[in-house]
Design a protein that fits this description.
heterodimer; A: mainly alpha; MetI-like fold; 2 domains; 13 helices; B: mainly alpha
Chain lengths: ~300, ~325
């Protein structure tokens, strides 16, 4: 089969079979990914939001915490691009700083969860037997606390804080990842190369992390991406409920929660943070979908 | 077949016990004395110390942990979640009164999301690669990506503020909060139904596409069965089998969403009860509501497993 290749200038070229066959999996996947325009737009938006968060002190026009009672709930103007909130803080600057927390927490929390979930899944699938049964029962229990309910339980005990939020999101990602990795490992460990490694005297740890893990990386990447989108929604939801990042620290969820009280007078205070959450989550979902399509041959 | 159902039933038992254990364990993680979580936050100084002593006596927080655990398990299994710190009523009573409200909203949202998810998913699969497919996938993606509370406020803004204003009405078209007639249910149902329909639509579409690649579908076409019948009799019946599994996940999703949506619309269900419990630092309420939600999830999953036996004959012969 001939494969299409689009270079940076947008020219379409055809790869012959030989060239395509010789490419590494990652390169092939990248080619495939690049063909998905929606995903590229999504990726561009995420990079934009990430840069905005990283360079928040430079990009913002005002101190996001400085109140000015004389300038409460002003409409957008040249000085305050998106207007001001109920205590006269510059709304644009608050949203810029909010990007920091929302993205950072979502990504770090998911990453931690993905690492633990992968290890748990590897162990469960590789060792089988009572270890597997025990782990899967625990995962079942974790699944019985749907979405935000588990987060609410943990936060209600530990109290709301940035660190606890990351723990919650990590716990959140574990069951899904563990199940996927376990499923893959179950079939992979019977493959010839795993058998060969065992015959050569490779230890369990080596087989697990050196032979099995790289071959189950594709679904891990896909679900980690989709999981990050979910994590950002959860962070915002907890912030909205007052269980996430605490005000006055700016986070999209708590900014929105604050803004809803002024729905009549200043609806933008609610609309903007929500739209940002929505676009960010949608961009990550687009990337995740494209990754799934690109890595498809490896996802059984 | 009976063996399978019994096995599923037996698997649900450790899951429920595990969920109760998890809540108990979470309680032990509390910084400081877990008993403090049972003292109303407005009690101060000596009053609080007195109450603490009572709490310790009532819940036995001074007993050895295994004993505490056993007692907690026993009480919970008897549907005794303790007493609310604010209303001083048993949590189980409060919860029971709110269950019908949550069920009403949940069932409506479930029906909407299932109807939307299955019909749109099948339509997208049939029209694969056309603009209909793309439009439906965007519709689903938006549902999946939108924060439900934001969508709720956008609807409130539209139907309770702007549209009435434009039409010159004095009352909102749809009431923004509270429990009442059908009108009160419309917005929360749309929010919950649409945000959960996204996943289902995507899942139904891919499940249908997979089935449509099977040999028996090609055979049906080759032998001249009308396209309509190929879809309904060959593809749809098989394509929707795996969807039964997802319906359980869908219920879990709606339950989680209802916690936030009941708060937005001041809908007096279990979800709002949970949030009120957290805001008021009323821990017995929190654990009662959380356990109720968790056991409903386990129950629904059990139900879909049993349902699967009836719709998928392959399982009967396992």
């Amino acid at each position: 089969m001939k494969e299409q290749r689009v270079d940076n200038a947008g020219n379409v070229a055809w790869l012959d079979d030989e060239e395509f066959r010789r490419m590494s999996g990652a390169k092939r996947a990248w080619l495939e990914f690049r063909r998905n325009r929606f995903a590229l737009v999504g990726a561009a938006f995420i990079i934009f939001i990430a840069l905005m968060g990283i360079f928040a002190p430079v990009v913002s026009t005002h101190d996001p915490y400085k109140q000015s009672l004389r300038k409460r709930m002003k409409p957008p103007s040249a000085e305050h691009w998106l207007g001001t909130d109920e205590v006269g803080r510059d709304f644009y600057s608050r949203l810029v700083y909010g990007a920091r927390v929302s993205l950072f927490v979502g990504i770090v929390g998911t990453s931690v969860g993905v690492i633990f979930g992968t290890i748990v899944g590897l162990i469960s699938g590789f060792f089988g037997g009572w270890v597997d049964t025990l782990i899967m029962r625990v995962i079942d229990v974790m699944y019985s606390f749907p979405g935000i309910v588990l987060a609410i339980l943990i936060v209600s005990v530990l109290g709301p804080s940035l660190f606890n939020l990351i723990i919650v999101l990590a716990i959140f990602a574990i069951p899904t990842l563990a199940r996927i990795v376990r499923g893959n490992v179950l079939s992979l460990k019977e493959q010839d190369y795993a058998e060969a490694a065992r015959a050569l005297g490779a230890g369990r740890t080596r087989i697990m992390f050196y032979h099995l893990l790289p071959n189950t990386l594709a679904p891990i990447i896909v679900y980690a991406t989709l999981g990050a989108a979910g994590a950002i929604l959860t962070t915002a939801g907890l912030g909205f409920l007052g269980l996430g990042v605490q005000p006055p620290q700016a986070e999209w969820g708590n900014i929105l929660s604050n803004g809803r009280q002024y729905l009549r007078k200043a609806p933008l205070l609610m609309i903007f943070p929500g739209a940002l959450i929505f676009l960010t989550v949608m961009s990550i979902n687009l990337i995740g979908d494209a990754l799934r399509d690109a890595l498809d041959p490896y996802i059984q | 077949m009976r063996k399978y159902i019994v096995k599923r039933l037996l698997l649900a038992v450790p899951t429920i016990l595990g969920a109760i254990t998890a809540v108990w364990f979470a309680m032990q993680l509390a910084p400081g004395d877990p008993a403090l979580m049972f003292v109303p936050p407005d009690f101060q100084g000596e009053e609080a110390a007195e109450y603490l002593a009572k709490v310790n006596e009532k819940y036995g927080f001074n007993d050895p942990l295994p004993l505490q655990y056993m007692r907690y398990m026993r009480n919970t299994l008897q549907f005794d979640f303790g007493t609310s710190l604010r209303t001083l009523r048993p949590v189980s009573e409060d919860v029971l009164r709110r269950i019908p409200n949550s069920v009403r909203l949940g069932v409506a949202a479930f029906l909407l999301s299932t109807a939307l998810g299955i019909s749109l998913g099948v339509l997208a699969a049939i029209k694969r690669g056309t603009w209909v497919d793309s439009a439906l996938m965007v519709f689903a993606l938006v549902g999946v990506s939108m924060p439900n509370f934001w969508f709720a406020y956008v609807l409130i803004l539209l139907f309770s503020l702007y549209i009435p204003k434009v039409l010159g009405l004095n009352t909102p078209i749809l009431p923004p909060s509270g429990l009442g007639g059908v009108k009160h249910m419309i917005m929360p149902t749309i929010v919950l139904g649409y945000t959960s329909a996204g996943y289902l639509t995507r899942y139904v579409r891919s499940s249908m596409l997979e089935v449509m690649n099977h040999d028996y579908v090609r055979t049906a076409r080759a032998k001249g069965v009308a396209e309509r019948n190929v879809m309904v009799k060959h593809a749809l019946r098989n394509g929707l089998l795996p969807v039964v599994n997802v319906l359980g996940i869908n219920v879990a999703f709606i339950l989680a969403g209802s916690v936030i949506i009941e708060t937005v619309f001041a809908w007096p269900g279990v979800g709002l009860y949970l949030i009120d419990g957290i805001v008021g630092r009323d821990f017995p309420v929190v654990q009662g509501a959380v356990l109720l939600i968790a056991s409903s999830v386990v129950f629904v999953n059990l139900l879909t497993d049993v349902m699967l036996v009836y719709v998928d004959p392959r399982i009967r012969y396992e």
